[in-house]
């Protein structure tokens, strides 16, 4: 089959035998403007002469004389006119009956462009074509084909067709590198070739097995209005009959473009654009029923366009109204791939180690060249801006520093500093030994990278009003521009910055104890002296005040905070710390973290920016750790620590709220070691290196705790939310997105050896988008909600789990996934909605035992099936489901 297909193409000069051939630009339609110039009417020199002693030519003849006696001299020069300067395609029609490829040289306006190879044709009466991209000036130009002294010549030239610059289809190709499948194909010519961005590779349907169906998954519903189909530019003319369909669930398809016959012609770059009335679709399908040039449908590129990828600025992604789901934060979020840009969209991808897989929405924009930018229009007034980005690591794994230029209203504001020293880990869990996880060595085994993004936050020089255009642009003047291959922009957040807070009357300022803002000198002693002043005040003072500025904690020793061996700011019971606001007061440095020794404190309104460069489970610095009994931790911003919050030692009645946890190496937040009666609400967690939010009943049961109205994005390992044992806990109204690897959106069960799991666990009204992942260690797929009863052995007892009212959208694999033994417990799944699952709506693995009740659940779009129970030892009951 493969051999026949290749022979067929060579006879028509279809193989791209010249490595120098250049892919033509995207044609907007099959009627792109072109002009054919007959060779016999061109300017002939050096022995080139008109002839008519073979058949199959156009016009009055062709040009011969490219013989060895005229080597170094024979030439045909076409005088052409270009309406505007730009890139055009020149298609030469030639005959080469010698039996082997021959070369001539291409000149434009007197300058040699390259040597081109002309494949052998079947005879001197058979004509082939060869396409090159040429740059022309506006007005008059010359294009010459010459038998240079370095060429092999011995060809005839019939004509040259010049194609005008084509108008690209609007927006971004939504199908580039997307998931794609086919119902059949010729071996080696698979569906993935049609979306790889390489026009020299192609898909071909199985011979005489029509319809050949090619389906691309755009990852989420998009408004689409056209598809562009390409074949290699050098292939001969052919027609293909096909239709275009769209679907939201890969099950029910509607017709976007009815079956029609389309001509692919090398004079128009073998490109066809099919437009149709705009429609919403996640899946776009081609159905081929005929091909005049082969026995199956063919496509080297299958591109999809629409307003879903418009370069106009969309409304920002704003938080849902309070009382629905997710955190209500003060910023607007702009996804880079949906903005006006001149970069390249990467993704979508779910492949571990792929830069797009760790991006919000699994897409981002990569800027490589000077002048490339991302820009958008402010929907609301803003003075604070946060950029989530990635720049490459260096060869030693220590990271590089760079910058990107920020403009407001067309005026340069400042260069924003970027770094990769807080990103890019490699290796395996124990590569470095001890309790250090992963490695900063790019040559570690495996060298698949993870934790590839960081964030930069900037206070602008003024508040800019709604309607201001904000632009981020790479400039050659940026720091280390030449050694920074690219800047990948994932998202941008903008917000108004409220006025700075004032010091409460019963607080002491660290300035009074020797701290100096923004000088880079160590302020540890000043902090500790202020803390001691509060402790020794007999109740006159309640806490320590951090004024506006950056204060450094760099001097100390490594060690674990829980045993007092590491430098931290240790807070005894009743010693609170407040700042002027997260945009004003910052504690930074190698030991920027607080350890709570007795609770009864308030920590609020400042930023913690540590310097941890890798996950060190023993001596890494936690943002806030310890016993938070009767404590309020609110409006904090934590980054570059081991964990954000780690409440332990049987904390009781703590509240963590309105905080941002970004780019930490392990858990975003963990309620540990018997934490009870505590609430975690209205927080944003992004880019944690382990579970975003976790309750871990280690030794003692976590009891009566609540995770509510939080947004957890892109944990680079494990779950967005995880419940490990415990009693009477709740997971309510959270927004969870973009799990990366080894985890789910919400996992519950008996992992990590809890003493038991009992009472009632409530998982209700959460929204999970693009959750679930491949577990690379286990080797199988994890669903968006994961019932994981590993090592249960009776630990789950007298337990009821109620999973209800959750919305699961675009799960990577199954919507709900159940595994491992869980006999004798009650699990109820009620009124959950699963839309566009990657595989099954609900999947019960063969290792599961026990039972669950499913009532009034809805699955819309599950290509593998709505429900599958593969365990003979797992019983399902219930009614009202749509499977």
UniProtKB/TrEMBL annotation:
Residues 157-307 form the F5/8 type C domain. Coiled coil: none annotated. CDD domains: CBM35_Lmo2446-like (cd04083), CBM6-CBM35-CBM36_like_1 (cd14490). The keyword Nucleotide-binding does not apply. InterPro entries: Agl_cat_D2, CBM6, CBM6-CBM35-CBM36-like_1, FA58C, Galactose-bd-like_sf, Glycosyl_Hydrolase_31, PbH1, Pectin_lyas_fold. GO terms for molecular function: carbohydrate binding. Residues 35-163 form the CBM6 domain. This is Coagulation factor 5/8 type domain protein.
């Amino acid at each position: 089959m493969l051999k026949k297909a290749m022979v067929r193409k060579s006879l028509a000069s279809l193989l791209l035998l010249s490595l120098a051939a250049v892919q033509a630009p995207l044609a907007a339609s099959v009627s792109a403007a072109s002009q054919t110039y007959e060779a016999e009417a061109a300017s002939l020199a050096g022995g080139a002469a008109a002839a008519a002693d073979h058949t199959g030519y156009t016009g009055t003849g062709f040009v011969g004389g490219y013989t060895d006696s005229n080597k170094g001299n024979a030439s045909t020069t076409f005088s052409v006119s270009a309406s505007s300067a730009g890139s055009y395609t020149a298609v030469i029609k030639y005959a080469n009956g010698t039996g082997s490829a021959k070369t001539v040289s291409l000149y434009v306006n007197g300058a040699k462009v390259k040597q081109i190879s002309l494949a052998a044709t079947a005879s001197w009466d058979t004509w082939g074509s060869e396409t090159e991209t040429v740059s022309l000036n506006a007005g008059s130009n010359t294009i010459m084909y010459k038998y240079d002294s370095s060429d092999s010549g011995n060809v005839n030239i019939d004509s040259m067709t010049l194609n005008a610059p084509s108008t690209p289809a609007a927006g971004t190709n939504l199908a580039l590198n997307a998931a794609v499948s086919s119902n059949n194909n010729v071996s080696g010519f698979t569906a993935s070739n049609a979306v790889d961005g390489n026009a020299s590779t192609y898909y071909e349907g199985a011979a005489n097995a029509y319809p050949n169906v090619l389906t691309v998954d755009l990852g989420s519903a998009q408004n689409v209005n056209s598809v562009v189909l390409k074949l290699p530019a050098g292939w001969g003319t052919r027609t293909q009959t096909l239709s275009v369909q769209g679907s939201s669930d890969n099950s029910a398809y509607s017709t976007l473009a009815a079956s029609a016959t389309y001509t692919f012609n090398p004079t128009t770059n073998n490109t066809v654009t099919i437009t149709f009335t705009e429609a919403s679709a996640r899946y776009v399908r081609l159905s081929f029923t005929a091909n005049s040039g082969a026995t199956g449908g063919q496509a080297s590129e299958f591109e999809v366009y629409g307003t879903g990828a418009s370069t106009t600025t969309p409304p920002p992604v704003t938080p849902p109204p309070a009382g629905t789901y997710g955190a209500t934060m003060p910023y607007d979020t702009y996804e880079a791939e949906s903005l006006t840009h001149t970069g390249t969209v990467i993704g979508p991808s779910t492949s571990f180690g792929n830069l797009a897989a760790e991006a919000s929405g699994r897409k981002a924009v990569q800027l490589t060249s000077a002048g490339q930018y991302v820009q958008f229009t402010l929907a609301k007034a803003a003075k604070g801006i946060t950029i989530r980005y990635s720049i490459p690591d260096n060869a030693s794994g220590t990271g590089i520093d760079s910058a990107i230029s920020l403009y407001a209203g067309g005026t340069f504001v400042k260069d924003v500093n970027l770094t990769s020293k807080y990103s890019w880990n490699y290796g395996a869990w124990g590569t470095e030994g001890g309790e250090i996880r992963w490695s900063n060595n790019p040559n570690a085994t495996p060298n698949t990278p993870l934790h590839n993004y960081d964030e930069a936050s900037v206070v602008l020089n003024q508040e800019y009003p709604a309607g201001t255009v904000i632009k981020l642009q790479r400039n050659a003047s940026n720091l280390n521009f030449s050694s920074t291959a690219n800047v990948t922009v994932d998202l941008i957040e903008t917000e108004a910055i409220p006025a700075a807070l004032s010091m409460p009357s019963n607080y002491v300022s660290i300035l009074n104890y020797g701290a100096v803002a923004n000088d880079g000198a160590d302020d540890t002693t000043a902090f500790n002296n202020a803390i001691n002043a509060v402790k020794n005040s007999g109740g006159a003072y309640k806490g320590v005040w951090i004024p506006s500025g950056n204060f450094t904690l760099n001097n100390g020793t490594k060690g674990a905070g829980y045993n007092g061996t590491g430098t931290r700011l240790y807070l005894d019971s009743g010693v609170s710390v407040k700042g002027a606001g997260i945009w004003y007061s910052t504690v930074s440095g190698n030991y920027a973290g607080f350890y709570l020794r007795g609770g009864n404190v308030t920590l609020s309104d400042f930023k913690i920016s540590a310097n941890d460069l890798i996950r060190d489970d023993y001596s890494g610095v936690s943002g806030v750790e310890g016993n938070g009994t009767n404590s309020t931790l609110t409006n904090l911003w934590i980054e570059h620590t081991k964990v954000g919050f780690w409440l332990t030692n049987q904390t009781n009645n703590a509240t963590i709220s309105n905080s941002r946890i970004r780019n930490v190496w392990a858990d975003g937040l963990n309620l540990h070691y018997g934490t009870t009666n505590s609430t975690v609400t209205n927080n944003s967690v992004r880019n944690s290196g382990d579970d975003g939010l976790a309750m871990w009943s280690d030794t003692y049961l976590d009891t009566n705790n609540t995770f509510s109205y939080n947004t957890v994005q892109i944990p680079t390992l494990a779950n967005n939310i995880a419940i490990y044992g415990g009693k009477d806990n709740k997971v309510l109204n959270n927004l969870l997105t973009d799990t990366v690897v080894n985890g789910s959106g919400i996992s519950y069960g008996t992992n990590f050896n809890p003493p038991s799991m009992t009472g009632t666990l409530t998982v209700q009204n959460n929204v999970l988008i693009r959750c679930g992942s491949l577990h690379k260690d286990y080797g199988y797929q994890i669903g968006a909600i994961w019932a994981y009863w590993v090592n249960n052995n009776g630990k789950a007892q007298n337990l009821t789990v109620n999973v209800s009212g959750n919305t699961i959208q675009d799960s990577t694999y199954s919507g709900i996934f159940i595994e491992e033994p869980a006999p004798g417990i009650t699990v109820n799944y009620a009124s959950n909605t699963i839309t566009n699952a990657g595989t099954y709506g609900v999947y019960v693995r063969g290792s599961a035992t026990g039972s669950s009740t499913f009532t009034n659940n809805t699955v819309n779009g599950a290509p593998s099936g709505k429900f599958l129970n593969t365990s003979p030892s797992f019983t399902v009951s219930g009614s009202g489901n749509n499977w």
